[in-house]
Amino acid sequence: MRVALGILACLCVTGTVLGTDRASAQTPTLLWEAKGLAQPESVLHDPVTDVLYVSNINGAVMGKDGNGFISRIKPDGTILERSWATGLNSPTGMGLHERTLYVADVDRLVVLSAGSGSIEKTYKANGAIFLTTWSSPKTAPSLSPTRP
């Protein structure tokens, strides 16, 4: 599967959004392309290590098959570790707080070490059907469930 993450990664790393008025509109340019990923869903930049985390569903969306994983990629598109963190189901949104990586994984929040990728904790989101978005207010992480 060919995946064009270059533009998305560029937006995540720089926070730049192309102009909104017609006079300043630009045509996006593909900066790089990462190949070999498996249904990548989200990209998150780690400013401490200058690495991109990429969630890979690698199976049925919302499937609880244990095939999902997180990849680590350099900002130039070089894949450092394709299966850096494993044991996930259908990982989607991610957040980073104090060297801890939080991953929304169907109906649970998975807490990973940002250093090793090892799973430290999991929290079941009772009643959730499909967790997608992670945010980190100053007090505590929060998730946004999606319901069909």
Automatic annotation (TrEMBL):
Keywords (A to Z) from UniProt: Signal
InterPro entries for the chain: 6-blade_b-propeller_TolB-like
Annotated signal sequence range: 1-19
KW Signal (keyword) present: yes
Superkingdom of origin organism: Bacteria
Full protein name: SMP-30/Gluconolactonase/LRE-like region domain-containing protein
Provenance organism: Methyloceanibacter methanicus
